[in-house]
Amino acid sequence: MRVEKQEVKVGELAAGQALSLPVYRFHGKGKGPSVYIQANVHGAEVQGNAVIYQLMKLLEHYELLGDISLVPLANPLGINQKSGEFTLGRFDPITGVNWNREYLNHSLDIAAWYAAHSELDDDSLVAAFRTELIAACERKLDNVWGVTTGQWLATSLQAMAHRSDIVLDLHTGPKSCKHLYCPEYEREAAQYFSIPYTLFIPNSFGGAMDEAAFVPWWTLAEVAAAHGRELGVRVSALTLELGSQERIDLADALNDAEGILAYLSYRGVIAEKVLPKPMKRFGCLLKDYRKFHAPKAGMVEYVGKVGQPMKAGDVLVNLLRLDLYGTGEELTALKLPEDGVPILHFASASVHQGTELYKVMTKVFAL
Amino acid sequence: MRVEKQEVKVGELAAGQALSLPVYRFHGKGKGPSVYIQANVHGAEVQGNAVIYQLMKLLEHYELLGDISLVPLANPLGINQKSGEFTLGRFDPITGVNWNREYLNHSLDIAAWYAAHSELDDDSLVAAFRTELIAACERKLDNVWGVTTGQWLATSLQAMAHRSDIVLDLHTGPKSCKHLYCPEYEREAAQYFSIPYTLFIPNSFGGAMDEAAFVPWWTLAEVAAAHGRELGVRVSALTLELGSQERIDLADALNDAEGILAYLSYRGVIAEKVLPKPMKRFGCLLKDYRKFHAPKAGMVEYVGKVGQPMKAGDVLVNLLRLDLYGTGEELTALKLPEDGVPILHFASASVHQGTELYKVMTKVFAL
Amino acid sequence: MRVEKQEVKVGELAAGQALSLPVYRFHGKGKGPSVYIQANVHGAEVQGNAVIYQLMKLLEHYELLGDISLVPLANPLGINQKSGEFTLGRFDPITGVNWNREYLNHSLDIAAWYAAHSELDDDSLVAAFRTELIAACERKLDNVWGVTTGQWLATSLQAMAHRSDIVLDLHTGPKSCKHLYCPEYEREAAQYFSIPYTLFIPNSFGGAMDEAAFVPWWTLAEVAAAHGRELGVRVSALTLELGSQERIDLADALNDAEGILAYLSYRGVIAEKVLPKPMKRFGCLLKDYRKFHAPKAGMVEYVGKVGQPMKAGDVLVNLLRLDLYGTGEELTALKLPEDGVPILHFASASVHQGTELYKVMTKVFAL
Amino acid sequence: MRVEKQEVKVGELAAGQALSLPVYRFHGKGKGPSVYIQANVHGAEVQGNAVIYQLMKLLEHYELLGDISLVPLANPLGINQKSGEFTLGRFDPITGVNWNREYLNHSLDIAAWYAAHSELDDDSLVAAFRTELIAACERKLDNVWGVTTGQWLATSLQAMAHRSDIVLDLHTGPKSCKHLYCPEYEREAAQYFSIPYTLFIPNSFGGAMDEAAFVPWWTLAEVAAAHGRELGVRVSALTLELGSQERIDLADALNDAEGILAYLSYRGVIAEKVLPKPMKRFGCLLKDYRKFHAPKAGMVEYVGKVGQPMKAGDVLVNLLRLDLYGTGEELTALKLPEDGVPILHFASASVHQGTELYKVMTKVFAL
């Protein structure tokens, strides 16, 4: 199999250094869907690179039907941005804008576009729509007033992603169990990855890569369906949250690479049959995903374990306030308001009032 | 005149310190509109405090008809957040969220609310609507899952602001000339402040205090007008950009305090007649306000002067690239794409590709 | 037992908030040595607060012979300083100066001082020397040109510490096993804490609290000995490194509180006999404590386990470089240069060239 | 004249990008002293790059006797490190260590070295000593345990600087007038640069480049003199503080390039006679250079103008405390304790207690 490496320039630092991405392309036989996988758009979320490493090593032993493009280290500016002993890679250090909220929200009037192209057959329609999305990204970047640092990066990535049928964006949580963001139209995808918990998300753009990739196609499918045409959603886009940030674990990365391979097998990207890991899998709707914020400031003992179901009233956090010793308020147990599964918690053990301490799936169901 | 001071708690730091705001209330005779003025929601934008200081000293010599509440130092967490020799006060250092994008976007269905209250007379309608807005803020803060640090602050401020008829939010730019954000429905306000340039903004919520204060009232006026009732927009909300950040200038603060006083005089908040400073004033629609981003990285000489009109093709920036000495690209002049007035520029003299270098008013008109 | 709480002001934030320390004093019967314990001088090193909490709860059940002063949350500015999801609390965010390098280096000429006071009996000599050290701290703070933010804090803490015979400074490493900094003159202390590894440090001032507390006394003992007087070192000062930063673990804190109690029992601060935890304990001289720096940049899998002995040539780190996939340099094993015990490693999983990856004890010996 | 460009690698970022320095070498006829000039070791201090740019353009028109090496953008990691709208380039963002305190403090026993080499003639002695200094830098970098990120950079720069007879390090202050750090042995140098104020510094190593370059040579000269040999200090090293940080001003840079040229002319590096700018020049001993720290927190109006003499008791700063309005402490004038010239002040207009507000030369004398 031929692996091709390309460097794509996505930015330039003040002292003149070019920022470029390594893009690895595994070429398939052209009979399966094409795939785009990126990792590390948030600078501290490094484990996706290890998963791409293990996946590339695995792929050398499989027969590829579709092309696979892999972009590790997808945000060099974010990865390189340290503040103290940690990576401050979640947002642009100048503007505060989350790197995963900079993707282009296509302003295309899809209903009008469909009306103008409805005479095309399915394949031509899909090809024309894809061309339109890529062209919109290119227009965004080619602008006499310029674009922001984050838009340079995100729109460049997005233009690559729009060329593929399957888009996987590899992230992690702060201190987190593995979970998956999956659009509601593709529930079965949640059965293949080595991931126990899945959030099902609606057709709504909030700025992230997965939404940037699927929202136009989902909308197109809806518009076509409203005209009686069963086009289906032609692009799959999922975000994998591969545990905790600031962690490289090569053995665990192999486990997740095998899960991705199972999904690619199911989708016909590789010729071989690869089965998913047997595990219990659970789902939650995005509207039932809750954030628990610190009602008071203090030192935090995280009692709730990520990935383990809890009951309403169970202790989620012990909050320690040494300035209040002797008042009876030096140690407070904060309790979970509803039954749920803590999915991730904050990374630091001391918090201001209002810090998001936990994200919790409620109304969890078996898949 | 009685000045009353109140401390309003808006947060708590990890080590236990309470964050509170000083609120100064000047009580009027109850015959004029009430006023709310805050400053320093962005931590580095300190000059508004000096303006409030000068305004309070001035107010001691005037007859107040309406009540005036003044909140300097409105974001203690942002003010105290240093990073190197500057204040990193534009966004929450944990999440990156801009402190001026955390105000509550009322989810109230105003058309339905109007239908349910249309039998009320104007004064009762206004009072009921105000009560509803304040109650929504209180509900937001009283939530079993909690709210973010920024929402604690912003919603607390907003609940105070909703109690007044006039809301002034004092900000600055990075390196900036003075300018005003003014809703389109109140163009004449732009004639009173000691500020030469005004941006006229539409009825759209982007997260800022001025919008949080006027959008519901503007929408209510539109709904009422659609029912044939000329209620008018009952709340004025403006953002004053008082020059550059990281600057305290007491003499200039007096100048701006006098401009505010002229506006308050015009609005009947004080009994005395105070005339605005004579100056040429100019306007621009928000849609014509442009951001110019660095097409390349490098060292920056800011050639365009803020507040001074330029022609398309004039040199805005000299970009120096010492790594390219001898290639002919070591010094590049970046030119203004359209006629306009540079209003502000970036604070640092070295930039990554994509940094917002200037904001420029185009299609400027005299007021 | 009477516990007294005092608030000591150590700073003031830009927006006006006072920064104060809670100081808890447990009064003894005056027959044992006095003790000063502080925690959390580095903002992310929070576990010492939990240890102080558990220790205070334990102390309520013991008979105190000496006074004990406890200062949790000893650096409120550092604790409150977040940058992204972690606490940037190791250095002053404005100057970069390590908070634990700001203590006063006494400029006293101890030989001359001894010559001038040698006629005093031991107790009087000790009392006079203590008075001199405290006075020097007070002079430092009372200075027409002022002192830095860090000196305000450190010198205030130091003046309190100089009043005691035993000084314990509670820290943690980044990702760390427990270890102790112990001056060479008091080797037996290492047998009492719940800590397996001890670094023995010489009579040299590097800016830290333990050194600030013991160096003058050690020097005084040496000067006296040179004059044939066996004064002994009258002050003990140790730094306890209680595992990893950004962690509160109340059960483990109890374990360390019991170790401190065993040391206090041995020193006669409490009347009861408390035995140390049985464990193998090891030592290393400071000169044999090595820092291993990243020879190249990349993603890091930390293979060496903290607290577990390794041989020269064992793999310490896997360094992953996805930009080099296919070159043979995508995965490099970095090896330990000498036999040793990794004591701590860096907190982030991606590093620039030169980042300190591990600290390693070499030439380790059993205690 | 031949200008040669070389790229010197000094680091590597986490995502794999190499950090390299552009080194420009102008070759002289070998009859004059050699020169090394660097700029921008602190990331925000960019103006030195503009001065190097102007100097390189000037040099093309002069006859060079000695070689000149120019290193603009000398700290790419520091230059690229943004935090908010400013460059956080004064210290390593991970460790807090000031980039200008990482140079190698030679541990060479110079008295012993001189004893072992005293039979050499002056030129051979100088050459051997230079070789020894360079070798020590190389040994530092070639170390099985590695060196820190800052040591990689600083020691690489230092090894280059040790090859030259004249070392100029171009810095700026925060908000600053121009001033020069000049070793006491070379007072006449202060007459040539376009700089009014000079600090004369002793033979003491504090970590900076100028000291790293001259301390060994000064010590060697002293050792030789003690043996009755008038070797003189063979290396000149000066630090130029070229006004304020975060500023590029090409016209002013030309002014400073001409001052450097005057010094190079005086030293015989160029054949042509270039006269210094006529200006009054003043000096101050380093021991009389004072730091004024904020005795209280608050908003700061900087009243003292940099470069303008003041009397004891003159107002240096107005400190505004809006939380104290009405108490009589809302506005405090802070006064200069001694006659002096404010040389620089802090960059931010709000400060914590203890922030260094001003540096002031006292006991200033005319040169």
UniProtKB/TrEMBL annotation, chains A, B, C, D:
Residue ranges occupied by any Succinylglutamate desuccinylase/Aspartoacylase catalytic domain in the UniProt entry: 31-266
Protein name: Succinylglutamate desuccinylase/aspartoacylase family protein
Domain of life: Bacteria
InterPro entries found in the cross-reference section: AstE_AspA_cat, N-alpha-Ac-DABA_deacetylase
Taxonomic lineage: Bacteria, Pseudomonadati, Pseudomonadota, Gammaproteobacteria, Alteromonadales
Cofactor dependence: Zn(2+)
Keywords in alphabetical order: Hydrolase, Metal-binding, Zinc
SUPFAM superfamilies reported for this sequence: Zn-dependent exopeptidases (SSF53187)
Keyword Metal-binding: yes
Pfam families, A to Z: AstE_AspA_cat
PANTHER family: BLL3975 PROTEIN
